[in-house]
Amino acid sequence: MPNVLVINAGSSSIKYQLIDPLAEHRLASGVIERIGEDRGALRHRSGDDEIERALRIADHRAGFAALTEAFADAGLPLDRLDVAVVGHRVVQGGSEFLAPTLVDDTVAARIAALSELAPLHNPGHHQAIVAARAAFPGVPHVAVFDTAFHQSMPESAYTYAIDTATARAHGVRRYGFHGISHEVVSRRAARLLGRPVRELRQVVLHLGNGASVCAVDRGRSIDTSMGMTPLEGLVMGTRSGDIDPGALLHLSRAGIDADALDELLNKRSGLLGLAGSNDMRDVRAAALGGDPAARLALSVYVRRIRHYLGAYLLELGGADAVVFTAGVGENNAWLRGEVCAELGWFGIEIDPSRNDDPADGARIISSDDSRVAVLVVPTDEEAEIARQSWALVSAPR
Ligand code: ADP
């Protein structure tokens, strides 16, 4: 059986999973943290076995050596596991990467060059790709991009109305993110409904710490709420989502410089900025206890989701399914109820007992009379990276 080693790396961490793409089965997973610091850590799990060790990991290359050693120590050495391909998650693929791509030196250099658009993500991806290609030289490496699924957006959806020459010179346009999640969730939603994805219009709500909405028209993204960066759109754990660009000019003239604005909007806003915690469970508990700031935070959060849901129902010309996924979407029945409240006019009606059922697989939560199916579908970005990577290298040429 061929297996895919899926890598999701940052500048100081490597998360990995070994997945059988045909059975959609996870054989092992782990995380290496604090690369480059004095006190690094590795956690590796396969089956019921777990290895935890504290060790100094100088760089990504040392990280892959530690990973290989962990597999061997767990009794499943990688050279006996038929690793057929290494699949790398890459956040920013710009306008040029439309699909999963076989990594060669040129592709690796392009991913590094796109760091300009994703300074927090692409440098770490590039370091990991270089190290992984050295560690596993005998197998193909595939880059799977978070932006690629949204490359099907029409020009009118990805264009910001600013001076065209300035926008072009600086790559200022909407790219959209969470594409790997929106793609796997919309495919699995179709599977649950027993219909081909190419027949369905879906609004997918990915509500985790990061959050975005996607209008998926017959399997293709036609609009999404994140933009040039993962900051636009919904209220998130610590990110503001939509804000008048004039407010940023105002703050900048008041002496808050670009780095401080970056920190404010990415790390001190969203639920955290409004209610003091980025964890939806805390905010909900505080609201139930009567905390006015938490109540306001939840109202703003829900209103923004409904704003996009309404817009995408119009863009799609109606919908066959509304799909909730990620930490909040999968687990918070109250929030799902609020988002879908009084939408009978649109043919959207939740069944309260189905919604409250704490099951954890993919499930339908709408009433039998609801014209639009409302679903909860767990996301699995690693399985999708494995599927796409394997599909690329196993396709007949
Ligand atoms: P990330 O974007 O970091 O992957 P997740 O998808 O894990 O984030 O989502 C994190 C959010 O999901 C947090 O706000 C957390 O409160 C919420 N969440 C996770 N599990 C539950 C749960 N069992 N009940 C309610 N909310 C949950």
UniProtKB/TrEMBL annotation:
The UniProt record lists the keyword Protein transport:
no
Output this protein's name. Answer: Acetate kinase
Q: What does this protein do?
A: Catalyzes the formation of acetyl phosphate from acetate and ATP. Can also catalyze the reverse reaction.
Q: Which reaction does it catalyse?
A: acetate + ATP = acetyl phosphate + ADP
Q: Please give the organism.
A: Leucobacter weissii
One short Pfam family name for this protein?
Answer: Acetate_kinase
| Gene Ontology molecular function: any one | magnesium ion binding
Record bears the keyword Protease: no
The protein's matches in NCBIfam families, at most eight in alphabetical order, are given as: ackA
Task: Cite a single GO BP annotation.
Answer: acetyl-CoA biosynthetic process
